Amino acid sequence: MTAAIQAQPDERVAKKGLTDRLVVRPEIGALLGAVLVFVFFSVVTGQFLSPLGVATWLDDSSTLGIMAVVVALLMVGGEFDLSAGVMTASTSLVTAILATQAGWNVWLALLASLVFALGVGAFNGWLVMKTGLPSFIVTLGSFLALQGLNLGVTRLVTNTVQVSGMRSTSGYESAGGLFASTFSIGGTEFQSSIVWWIVVTAIAAWLLVRTRFGNWIFAVGGSQVSARSVGVPVVRTKILLFMGTALGAWLVGSINILRFASVQANQGIGLEFQYIIAAVIGGCLLTGGFGSAVGAAIGALIFGMARQGIVFAQWNSDWFMLFLGVMLLAAVLVNNAFRRRAERVRR
Amino acid sequence: MSLLEVKDIGKTYGSVIALRDVSTVVNAGEVTCVLGDNGAGKSTLIKILAGVHQHDRGEFLVEGEPVKFASPREALDRGIATVYQDLAVVPLMSVWRNFFLGSEPTTKFGMLDRKKGRETTKKALSDMGIDLRDVEQPVGTLSGGERQCVAIARAVYFGAKVLILDEPTAALGVKQAGVVLKYVAQARDRGLGVVLITHNPHHAYPVADRFLLLKRGAPLGSYEKKDIDINELTRQMAGGAELEALKHELRQVEKA
Hints:
The structure holds 2 protein chains of 2 kinds. Chain A is built from 15 helices and 4 strands. Chain A has helices spanning 3-7, 18-23, 28-44, 51-76, 84-101, 106-131, 135-158, 172-179, 193-210, 212-222, 224-229, 234-260, 271-281, 293-312, 318-343, and strands spanning 162-163, 182-185, 188-191, 263-264. Chain A has a two-stranded antiparallel ribbon. In chain A, helix 6 runs antiparallel to helix 7 (135-158), helix 13 crosses helix 14 and helix 14 packs antiparallel against helix 15. The longest helix of chain A has 27 residues, at 234-260. By secondary structure, chain B is of the alpha/beta class. Helices cover 38% and strands 25% of the residues of chain B. Chain B contains 9 helices and 10 strands. Chain B has a 6-stranded mixed β-sheet with strand order 6-7-8-3-9-10, with helices on both faces. In chain B, helix 5 (144-157) packs parallel to helix 6. The longest helix of chain B is centred in the last third of the chain and has 16 residues, at 174-189. Chain B starts with a strand and ends with a helix. The interface between A and B is large, with 37 and 41 residues.
């Protein structure tokens, strides 16, 4: 066998057309959906395409998108993290309490909440791997525990259910410059969370398809036993994935607290399902082993466009849930069809 | 010196004795065949060899050195590769990603070398005589026999000295089973020591050099190929009275 032979494409494989190559991409359904939603609201409301309108729905998509992407990585790895939503509030609260009540420098408080987040993520992962229980139930536990902790500790420290007063803390301006500033394009202010969203998506997409670790993510989600038997460090990979979602939650929590300067103790509850929904719309299989970071980002974009589009069109926001349900069902049907195609066995 | 040797090896799970007093050897360029019915202890034995479980009695020697593997990775690092019946590959991943899983080729910064991965996979497979159309297709689209072959080629490529095959022909049709056995023979001819687990003496006999028969966790017999013919092997496996039932069954098959 010579190199010349391998360089030649196999004659039995017809040159794949663009459509053939696109159909097998996990994010294609989401992309079509996004175009559809975009065109629809552009036609229905004038505000949607205005610079301010674009800035609004991009802003709405961005923090959701950051989380959708990290949750997508975890889902490709075959696990769920229901504590991801409430973690965004927990990290905000840790930062805010340390900065306002204990008088820490904001940067130091951010570092402390980062350590806290990674600790919770590692604990989630360790518990799931140690017990072999479904991550759904384990992280449901940590979700409830964190929710209680958020409220309990906040009330204990401040006697209210919110922490505010971030603006007067030391280091608020500089940290805010990194996490929650705005930038101007053509006179319209855009939130820097949009940049974070794009950066996180790019890193995650690169990690997933271009690195060894990405290969392991697919493997542990696709078939954990096979992965282990060929020497993939399954436990380490999964714990790192849980720490990854916690890291994302820390980033979003930091963006929120530095932007709004206060945080409600009950924030973030219910968001975990939005992350999962965005990831599934973006092509992630609920059973793991298949999905895309870019897809999840597009899923979040659909979310943001639809939520703000409905506001611009001055419809009742109740319709958003109907839209979401239809979108989710459509995405799951498309995903399911694909998986059957990919797993089809020719005997 | 043998590549692998087990001496009076045993394993208990709680009060269940899964395996006891089993001894055999695996030499380079030879096939050691482990035969036995369901529950005979075949799986326990290979799981010990593969590093999934640890033996609690007897001795396990790799190239003369006593070992006790803590994980499959350790066994792999000593050149012992295992191909499991249905767990050989990750169905949703492409052929080349499966081929390199756990030992991915990287450029600097830990980036995957995808070009090298694809080309090496294609070449390694064609060296084993496996001709795939497209290494980017998901392994799930391959037939059962092809999947086994990809896993075997992978083990051979990554320099395995010992190849453990868990029922590679169990779920396959006659023709597919023949193809897989051909690759087993090819791996053997390349100088690998092969451990072939099966409950089909007709698959075992043509390729094996040595037979280890297990029953209810204990050795029933251990033979060199020259000391036993296929009829005797079948008779031993079925055992006395059960053989009559088998003959009856075979007659019915012949009639049909």
